[in-house]
Amino acid sequence: MGAALAIAARGRGRTAPNPSVGCVIVTGGRVVGRGWTQPGGRPHAEAMALAEAGEAARGATAYVTLEPCAHESRRGPACADLLAAAGVARVVAALRDPDPRTDGVGLARLTAAGIETACGQREIDARRSMAGFLARQRLGRPHVTLKLALSLDGGVAMGDGRSQWITGPEARAHAHLERSRHELILVGAGTLAADAPRLDVRLPGLEDRGPMRVLLSRRGDAPAGWLAIRELGAIADLPGDHLLVEGGAAAAAAFLSAGLVDRLIVYRAPILIGAARTLGDIGLTDLGQAHGRWVLEDRRTLGVDTLEVYGRA
Question: Measured by CB atoms within 10 angstroms of the end CB, which terminus of the chain is less buried, N or C?
């Protein structure tokens, strides 16, 4: 299942409205097929893995990060039916599919076909892997990651709003990798005016993974090639399941105050700015309200900087 989760990440940010799923087919202790959801959402991971496995799939075990779909589509057959037709002996899913067209039906169909099934292996990791799909299914909006680049004294920008560059090259490279994993990237009008950010992906081999640029602006106008929204509720209508909020202080505070941040990425640089811009009001009326909201998921060193990743409690 770990291998299936790892390859599922290859499709992250490119498969909406479908989730990015990974599938590994094993027989006799040997991997005979691997697949992940392709750009645009088809073919599905199971179809890719079965095509690679061929006849070796008969009697094998399929590890898949999401319950195989059970509904027919004009874009391809149901994966539960494909697995049954291929003659696999066992299917292990990390997570049940919340889509009402499949929820529990895919596993039940496999069981009815005489295939052994199990569900729940590494469920927490699968939920993180498919956070965008799950947010869209359950909340009706994209999964929102807020990126913050901070100085030691908590500054997100100089007093005049400039924020290029608080962090070093290693942290910036990691930020570009994060961009490649999102369909959408948003900044506020102040950041656009101060920094004129390109918001693209400048990593070798990933240049085509640049997310769609979105501007949060009360005026509702945006540069050519950008989308504009006037209010936070409009993120529900954006075309994608993963939204990265990159700046600035006002936009970050607005998303936090509205309770719309699902994940925090904090890059902390060993610098002091002094008279810096900070987040400002995020809606807290008592310090006690700040505790217990975030759970540390990852911490690492990137050059001279420190990265911390938090999920909502």
Answer: C
Q: How far is CA 229 from CA 26, 198, 222, in A?
A: 47, 18, 9
Give the distance from CA 110 to its chain's centroid: 29
Residue reference for tokens 């700015």: 273
Q: Which CATH architecture has domain 141-312?
A: 3-Layer(aba) Sandwich (3.40)
* Token pair 């081999």: residue: 205
Structure token pair of residue 215: 């501007």
Which residues are known to be catalytic?
A: 46
Q: Is 131 annotated as a binding residue?
A: no
Q: Is 301 annotated as a binding residue?
A: no
Protein fold of 1-131: Cytidine Deaminase; domain 2 (3.40.140)
Give the residue extent of every domain in the chain. Answer: 1-131, 141-312
| Rg, Å, the chain Cα set | 21
Task: Please check if 149 is assigned to a binding site.
Answer: yes
Q: Cis (ω within 30 of 0) for the bond into 168?
A: no
User: 67, 135, 58: which is closest to 101 by C-alpha?
Assistant: 67
β-pairing verdict for 90-93 and 227-229? unpaired
